């Protein structure tokens, strides 16, 4: 299992709710969380069969920015 981290603009509970269905339906994602207390709003994703670019694209489709760190 890989762990990916992204700097995002997902900065509140409503933002997390908005991105939740997109990340939850992504095949291979086991677990994810957003640290909204961190100034970089770090999204951490643990996944088996998905790559960082796919995760970034999914977050962008949900209307947010994501850059791997």
Automatic annotation (TrEMBL):
Organism this protein belongs to: Pontibacter mucosus
Entry-linked Gene3D superfamilies: 3.30.70.100
Top-level taxon: Bacteria
Protein name: Copper chaperone CopZ
PROSITE patterns: HMA_2
Membrane-crossing segments per the record: none
One Pfam family recorded for the sequence: HMA
GO MF term list: metal ion binding
Domain HMA residues, every copy: 1-67
